Amino acid sequence: MGEFRKPLIPVNAWLACPGQSDEKLPLNLMVAQPGRREGTLKQNDEAEPIVQQSANRLPEVRALSVSDLTGCLRKGFADFASEPLFGLVFGCVFALAGIAIVLSVTAWQLPWMIYPFAIGFPLVGPFAAVGLYEVSRRIDQEKPITWAGILSVVWAQRRRELAWMAFVMLFVFWIWMYQVRLLIAIMLGRMSFSTLDKFITIVFTTPEGWMFLAVGHVVGAILALALFSITVISTPLLLEREIDIVSAMITSVKAVLASPVPMLGWGVFVTLAMIIGSAPMFLGVIFVLPILGHATWHIYRAAVVRAATD
Fold this sequence. Notes:
Elements: E1 8-10, H1 11-16, E2 30-32, E3 51-52, H2 66-82, H3 84-107, H4 114-120, H5 125-128, H6 130-140, H7 147-156, H8 162-187, H9 196-205, H10 207-231, H11 234-240, E4 241-242, H12 245-258, H13 260-278, H14 285-303
Parallel strand pairs: 3-4
Antiparallel strand pairs: 1-2
Helix pairs in contact: 2-3, 2-14, 3-14, 6-7, 6-14, 8-10, 9-10, 11-12, 12-13, 13-14
């Protein structure tokens, strides 16, 4: 006889309505319900990328080589070439958000925030690429790709664990911006810079500025490494499978540790590509983000062993 498994239903809904069928309950915090078999969660045709994950097992990961990552990058280019409109639209949204924030800090007479913001803004790139992951998923499975389908999946994430990943990314970005302000107060507090030009002059031509750059970039590198390790695999994993955020982040770290040199090299490549793309008023991000987003989906598929129900 096959193993009998207990399915998962939301805790709050089950406690409130113990006699109600679980098929109509929302997807959130899960608890086992006796007397039913586990299976793929039912969703509509437009927002369906859910695979049930065993509560007691983390997804298995495999080691990747540099050639594996370059192959994923080529697939990312291919996906972008196959469906360029989706990539360009998501890239434009990300770029416009960056431009709007830069214009805002300029209007608030805080031009010194532009440089750290441009460096730290790519930290939230993985969440911005959720729609691109869905496009690549549908290309892989040869499913129809429509705006209604893609946007419905993105919108559905507000009730799933992926929404918490957005909070994690924004929190790390907030820490990055806060530590920049702290370092400025400690190292450059006695210097006056009312414009971006004066700030750049002080940072690049004074000993205090050099120390600020050195310490700031070391701290930024540590934050970026931590965020990369917990998100590079977890974000597409949370999109495709019904798994809690902690397990997803642990799986992501396991994948990085399984291939430390190739994965860290990929992280450096992504960071440099996003920073370079952000330089001309974020316009390069319009093309960089979709290619990297599609490639990241293929890295996830290569690094994580597929579940039996995938």
